[in-house]
Amino acid sequence: MATDEDRIRQRLRALREERGLSLDAVAQAAGMAPSTLSRLENGKRRLAVDHLGPLARALGTSVDALMAPDPPGDPRVRRRARKVNGMRVLPLNRDGTSGPRAYHLTLPERGEPALRSHEGHDWLYVLSGRLRLILGDKDLVLEPGEAAEFSTWTPHWLSGFEGPVQVLMLMGHQGERAHLRVGAR
User: Fold this and answer.
1) Three-point CA angle 26, 30, 35, nearest 5°
2) Distances (CA, A) of 64 to 28, 48, 56, 93, 115
3) Residue 143, strand partner residues
4) pLDDT digits 0-9 by tens, 25-38
5) How far apart are alpha carbons 44 and 134 in whole angstroms?
6) Is residue 72 assigned to a domain?
7) Of the candidates 15, 44, 67, which is a domain's last residue?
């Protein structure tokens, strides 16, 4: 991951190149030797606060603009749905995201319940259809707009009820491994 100093160095070089300016021209306007500017851009010399004002002026920008964080990237998550054990699974997080994972699941109506327990915690919200949730000794049917939260140490099982169900689900890594890996039951 790039540091703030690396980002500023990259911005200095990019602005100089965008404006078609040579190292000599920018260095002269900033009151420094071209070799100094070259070392600053390449990370071979530490970039100090005293360098920023003269370099910003030489490049026709402000110190604030040089130091500003990069604009946020595209926030949209573009992942493909896949089939896992009869479920349609659409990840809603980027790869490598830490913390709970979000999924849009389409679960078919399943046959005989096979309760499982594992480390973790799950949260779910029914979007459409009806969800059969067996949680320990409770056999529940959740309607659209209803949510559930539970420890996954409690034996549980999910299925569409009288047809498929669409669910938004948050789960930790343990739940992801237990429910969504190919071959999971």
Assistant:
1) 65
2) 22, 15, 9, 32, 58
3) none
4) 999 999 999 999 99
5) 62
6) no
7) 67
